[in-house]
Every structure is written in C-alpha cells, then in structure tokens.
Amino acid sequence: MVGIDWFLGLSAILFTIGIVGVLIRRNAIVVFMCVELMLNAVNLSLISFASHHGNIDGQMLVFFALAVAAAEAVVGLAIIIAIFRNNLTVDVSKINLLRW
User: Fold this and answer.
1) What is the pLDDT of residue 99?
2) Residue 96 pLDDT > 80, yes or no?
C-alpha cells in the first residue's frame, strides 16, 4: 500500500513544476497551464489528507475547487484569446495593457 508521503511528494513536485513554469515561461497559455497544474497539486494533497484521516471534508473542498477551476479556465482562456486578437501575440513580456 502506498503511503501518504508518496502522494505529498508528488504533489510537491507538481507544485514546484508549476511555479517554475509560471516564473520562467513567457507564453500566456503555458503560464495558464502551469497555474492549473499548481491547483491540481493542491487538490492532490487535499485528497491525500482526506483519505489519510478518513473524512470527506477534503474531498468536498476538491469538488468545489474543480468547479471553480472550470469557470476560471473558461474566463482565463477568453481573456487570453481577446488579448491575442488585439496584440497578435501571447508573449507576456510584450503585452502592455496599461498603454494608451
């Protein structure tokens, strides 16, 4: 049987990959996917703790977090598409929304 340590280690690795992706990458879509990866890493740790302690509270939190993540994905991709239509790029360093 796999212990909680393995799941928490996997969650930490996924979260670290997400942070590195957000800090290093310049493509807005890749940054968005890295944020989603970090959210899923947190969901994995919540499920692990809920399973380890034998209660359902963490699993209910993950259910609501996934519902919010689905709405966030729709809104986030719509914003990225709108920025791409105006600037013809999704490079974060070249996008300046505060410019007149």
Assistant:
1) 66
2) no
